[in-house]
Amino acid sequence: MIAHPLYFALLPAVFILYHLAHFIGHILFTRHALRHVPGPHPSSLLWGEEWLLYYSTPGAHYVRWHRQYGKVFKFTGAFGHQVLSITDPRAIKYILSEAIFDFPKPKGVRAWFKATLGEGILWVEGREAHERQRRVLAPALSQSSVRNLIPVFYETSTKLASQWIKLIDNNELNEAEIEVTKWAGRFALDTVGRAAFSYDFDSLSGGPHALAESMDGLTNNENKASSFYMRALFWIFPSILSIGDKGEMIRKSKKELGDIASQMWKDAKIAGDANDKNLMSTILRAEANLSAHKMNEAELVAQMRTTISAAFEPVSAIVAWTLYELALNVHLQNELREEISAAGLGDPSYDDLTLKLPLLDAVLREVLRLHPPILENHHEAAETISVPLSEPIPGTLDTHLVIPKGTILEIPVNVVQTDPNVWGPDAEIFRPKRWLERQKQGIRSEREILAFSEGPRSCIGKTFALCEVKALVVTLIRQFSFACPYEIEPFQSFVIRPRIKGQGPSSLPLVVRKI
């Protein structure tokens, strides 16, 4: 029997109408289920609060709304979909630790990671699949492995410092204005290449570098309207990531990083050095273990892309914000130099960096508290689920919140980490010594820093990142002083980046002087 031509003509329309009806039905059901949850009226019928959030100081409206509505509120995204914002400590513990695999990343976030990196550990969901990938990566990023990588951190730190000395020596004033965000990204890229893969990207040589520029350009243009539309819509239409110039940029960046990762993997197999303690050697050993589940080359390349990208964006942002805060406080710079000098250390070891430099540790913790690289921790309810709360939603007596299947929720890290009930009335002020005071008083809240998330899906590269930034700060603070002659503001990229107020892409020009 031959189908009527009209059948094929109507099939796309039926498909579209079905999905449209499903989308509208989900929105109406979610609105009804969350009708008792307070929140602002949408400022736009089409975009909800997306426009307001995107073009405002990152996180500012979350602070205002949580003060107004409490620890749980709802707001409207594009085309009317509902988003829950949660700072309730009991709910956060449940979502991130106790029931994390019931709250996967939203489909749009997973689509972003798949489009840019492949099916690596940031994309994968499900307990078994995630734990399998984590077992391959975790040993190379453990405390014992990072301990052996400290010399590499100093090598790349010294290389960056040498480039800055050249820039200063070209001036007659013993100082130079240096665009720090560019160098922070290149430091992060070279460090992960050398430490994780025994590969030298050589991006700190000072000249143009295609990979560094491609990775930076992928997210460092978020002031553009096209980036807003993509960010607003990918939550509900993930396929938008493949459209237009932005989609082409995503594909180009993924291919460039993938080509390099494939070559690194082939070179490593030829060299056959599985006795080292870096990530590449760990993967080689896993590959040689016949009893282990083997990953194909696409999976291996995805893991390598993921490792490089995860070490590039957040670390470069942490470095930039650390140097910015130091540039605002000459006294703090001097105190850090005195602490390092008094410790009588050469290049501090792992134990020195973690145990013998408390002010340095406090500075970095305070940077992470006030400038978390990832502003929002996003999840989605895989099924309709009841989440425990530490206190009822205002106007109710219920200490549980039923979240409908498919609802997107976000944990605003900046709100949690500037809660005056935890941090005091100066919670929004950069004051590293609060950490020394808290330690002396024996104060440790259950959740001090969420910048690396927590629970089974917390960042496995946390120790690696903290130690490489500390090694860099030690190297730079010994040789340079910093000052900031511009007004700097945060802006929303993939991570929260600094920029000169009112400008477009990331920018942090500091006056760097040899001492």
UniProtKB/TrEMBL annotation:
Which positions are annotated as binding heme?
A: 459
| Matches recorded under PROSITE patterns | CYTOCHROME_P450
**Cofactor(s), by name:** heme
* Pathway stated in the Swiss-Prot or TrEMBL entry: Secondary metabolite biosynthesis; terpenoid biosynthesis
Q: Could you tell me where this protein is found in the cell?
A: Membrane
Per the record, the major location class is membrane
Q: Does the keyword Cell membrane apply?
A: no
- GO molecular function of the protein, one example? iron ion binding
Q: Which UniProt keywords apply?
A: Heme, Iron, Membrane, Metal-binding, Monooxygenase, Oxidoreductase, Transmembrane, Transmembrane helix
- Transmembrane region positions? 6-29
Pfam families, from UniProt? Answer: p450 (PF00067)
Q: Which InterPro entries match?
A: Cyt_P450 (IPR001128), Cyt_P450_CS (IPR017972), Cyt_P450_E_grp-IV (IPR002403), Cyt_P450_sf (IPR036396), Cytochrome_P450_monoxygenase (IPR050121)
Can you list the GO cellular component terms from the UniProt entry?
A: membrane
Under the heading PANTHER family, the entry gives: CYTOCHROME P450, CYTOCHROME P450 12A4, MITOCHONDRIAL-RELATED
Assigned protein family: Belongs to the cytochrome P450 family.
Q: What is the protein name stated in its UniProt record?
A: Cytochrome P450
> What organism is listed for this UniProt entry?
Lentinula raphanica
